[in-house]
Each structure stands twice: as C-alpha cells, then as structure tokens.
Amino acid sequence: MKINIDITQQEIVETFELFDDWMDRYQYLIDIGKQLPQLDPGEMTDDNLVSGCQSQVWLVASGSSEKLTFRANSDAAIVSGLIALLLQIYSGHSAAEILDSKPWFVEKIGLADHLSLTRANGLASMLAKIRGYAQMVDNNS
Q: Which of 18, 77, 103, 134 is a Cys-bridge partner for 30, taking CB atoms 3.0 to 4.6 Å apart?
C-alpha cells in the first residue's frame, strides 16, 4: 500500500509533538540529517545545487512522472535534517501527487516560526526545486 503525502506529513507533525522544546526538535533535525546517504562526488554539481540556500544543498532527482525519487545532501546539519523531512514526504511519489500537495507540515510543526530567515528561504528553495522537477517530468509525459 502506498502512503500518501498528507499521511507522511501528519506522521512528521506527530513526531515533532513528542518533543517538549525547540532545542530537542533541532537535535532531532540534526540526527535525521546525519542519516542521509552521501551523494557521490560526481552528483555534487552546479546543476544539482539548490540556489537560494545559504548553505550548499545538492538535490538529485530520478524517475518518471509516475514515481520520482529524490536524494540530497547539505554541508549544514539542520539543513540536512530539513532535507531529510522533504525526502521522506516527496520521494517515491508521482509528479502529480507532488504538484497537488501543499507543504502544510511546515506551519503545523512551527518551522515557520523557528527557522532563521535564511533557512526559511532555503527550505522554500528546496521545495521549489522538488516541485520544479515534478513539473518538468509532468510536462514531458
């Protein structure tokens, strides 16, 4: 059974509710970011670099409009955690599902209020790049 994007977002919200304060939530982000598989050096190219992020973020997409897979890395700990959340939500879904979903988890877990402006802009840039890949394969199908 395929889990839909909203169910995954709700699971993330429930996980964040387990933490009493933002220091614990930041530590959780750092911990899940450390679990990201490393990209090959050959994938860490300008083409895969997410513009608009203060730290370096590389996002690699593969697949088709039926199922997109994303892999990513960053040189910043908390940003790696944000990427891990996005990959958990969007990787493995169709382009249409990605384009039809809204990232409401950001508001629900309070990220919008607890990220610096530069990290919030970076998160928006990562989401835009994921949606851009989805749009591109959706238009080509």
A: 77
Token digits of residue 64: 């088709």
Classify 92 as helix, strand or coil: coil
Q: pTM of the full predicted structure?
A: 0.93
CA separation, residue 82 to residues 48, 77, 110, 138 (Å): 17, 9, 13, 25
Using CA atoms, how far apart are residues 46 and 105, in angstroms rounded to an integer? 29
DSSP three-state, residue 106: helix
| Phi, psi dihedral angles at 62 (to 5 degrees) | -145, 165
Does the annotation mark 53 as catalytic?
Answer: yes
In the chain, domain spans: 5-139
- Indicate which residue of 29, 32, 50, 53 is catalytic: 53
pLDDT digit string, tens, across residues 35-73: 999 999 999 999 999 998 789 999 999 999 999 999 999
Which CATH number among 3.40.50.300, 3.40.50.2000, 3.30.200.20, 3.90.1010.10 corresponds to the domain 5-139?
3.90.1010.10
Tell me how far the alpha carbon of residue 108 is from its chain's centroid: 16
Alpha-carbon distance of 71 to 140, in angstroms, equals 21
